[in-house]
Request: fold
Amino acid sequence: MANIVKRKSVFIRKQEIALFRISNVSGAYIELTNIGASIVSIVVPDKKGVLSNVVLRYDNLEDYLTGNFYLGNTVGRVSNRISKARFTMDAIVYNMDKNDGENSNHGGYNGLNKKIFSYHINNESVAFYIESPDGEGGFPGNLKLRVTYSFSENNELQIEYSAVSDKRTPASFTNHTYFNLSANKDNILNHQLRVNAQKYLEADAEFLPTGRISGIEGTAFDFGDYKIIQKMALLKEDNLDGYNVYFIKQDNKKALGSVKDTISGRVLDVYSTMPGVLFYTGDFLSGQFLPFQGLCLEAQYYPDAMNHTDFTRNILEPGKEKKDTIIYSFRAEE
Reply:
């Protein structure tokens, strides 16, 4: 049975911010905060059984209110970019916050990542709750979201998103944790990646989908089998040293993506009900973090889906609850 403890509680502007730990019998654990319903730590064993944290984190909880990298955050209402910060739905044009040049990114200036969620500790999980009012960030509908975290005896971290709105509205939530399976002993360029995909979304210099869906075979995006990230990145011909690319899931029965560090033996398998994954190598990390110090595998709906009629999108219908799940499953190999 999971052991759940609230390890810290402080008040900022009369709002409680808290740190929670869910541990299993092996001693492995995750830590969470209600700021952005965020993952703070994931402490799991290597092939020798040594427990270490494998995600980037801030040392002070308050930094999650001001950080610029979506570190461990729940992001939305719509993750990733919306081109020109607008979309049309039901013949109505909606204008979003322009927080990424002329585009909107991760929900705009009032995205979920900086919100202080309410919470409830259950027997086996911690649930975070937030309400986003009609018009916030430009999105229609009063949205209610519950984000529930659990951590199993098999070192599986499960996230369930449950959302409901009183108006039709797009929704694409994800988690923006930066993983480093070496526990920061190296950067992530020597990690190996495998994705459950045969196709990816071609993107322009602003990381917006062009609308073209391309095959991965024989390209710098061919991670059908485990490949070293740095070696594959050398084959790229775009404006980014690393990766910021969305892969389309091929087989619903397999992990959406997997990454491993051969020195520590740690392997991460990502499963999700969502149709694809955004792979980002942390190129723009700065300050206390270095570029390529962590990588993201963000299960989500197609980026900019509202502006591409042939992309898979998630529309909440009024009063109908919609759920999606992400599972981060950790293991170690010799």
About this structure: The chain has one domain: 3-332. The mean pLDDT is 96. The helical segments are 229-233. The radius of gyration is 19 Å.
